[in-house]
């Protein structure tokens, strides 16, 4: 063995270890690390080759060089294990980050779409109910399909009464011809109520009504009314006028003027129409109010004794007033909607504004 031969394995071990450590440190993924480990510690590595070459050394040098190579391998294996731990943790973190479900994004997208709103007519109906409930009224409802008795006869319109032509009626194909109708107004709910409840009565009755007519800026074939009925002792027209005034002030504000005009309804005597200043033109006259400056909101009057008799209430003991507001008209005047037909179009760009 030469001098050179004796010293070479230790130098070789240090060089091999430095190169191997650099390769292990350079690996950026666990797969790359596995390849690097095979290259620097496997059968074809410089380290394995140096081990195989030990046989050419004399026994003392072989023992010493063998220990150096063994120690180097131990350190490299430790280094590889440490590097593997670091890379595996980073890879797991990256994978979890990638697989994460971003639930905040999902709720952001869904919430505005899932949240709807009440139709303007429903909002208006509830607002009107609230005003009357605050005044001490209760709320009642009745059916949309009525017999002739409830829609006409009990309201003082016997068969063939000319006033029936005030309402263009949809008849249902049920029972005898022309005996079942889609209610043309909410007044029949008054009849149901008085059949079921003894006076005193203070109630409002909202609901959907139907008329066989061509829709225009102020009329829909399917529309909504809020009926009112007060039956008590000593009720006068002054109570009616005061109630209407209180209501219009509360709902439209004190700037809007109201007027009562004499009218005719078979179920009230005397009868009147409630009109307010057209809010579209502020009274100047426009298409919506047919250039009159006024818009009719309700019919009203003192309950006709014939109606009390039809439901078995003694008109000598009880008097009362009644009214029927157009709910859609109230929405129209409150929000300045020039043409009522837009309420039926269900265009969300319109409805979203309310
Ligand atoms: N029912 C009537 C209509 O639809 C409105 C009405 C007028 C209702 C007078 C009433 C009333 O209660 O007393 O045209």
Structure overview:
- By secondary structure, this protein is of the alpha+beta class.
- α1 (3-26) runs parallel beside α4 and α6 (120-134) packs across α11 (327-335).
- The chain contains 13 helices and nine strands.
- The protein has two domains: 9-99; 120-351, BirA Bifunctional Protein, domain 2 (2-Layer Sandwich).
- The N and C termini lie far apart (102 Å).
- It binds 3,4-dihydroxyphenylalanine.
- The site of 3,4-dihydroxyphenylalanine has 13 residues, from β7, β8 and β9.
CATH superfamily of the largest domain: Bira Bifunctional Protein, Domain 2
Extract low-pLDDT stretches.
1-7
Strand order of the largest sheet: 1-4-5-9-8-7-6
CATH top-level class of the largest domain: Alpha Beta
Structural class: alpha+beta
What Rg do the Cα atoms give?
46 Å
Per the CATH scheme, the topology name of the largest domain is: BirA Bifunctional Protein, domain 2
Characterize the biggest β-sheet: 7 strands, mixed
CA-to-CA gap between the ends? 102 Å
Q: Give the helix proportion (percent range).
A: 40-55%
Instruction: Quote the average pLDDT.
Output: 92
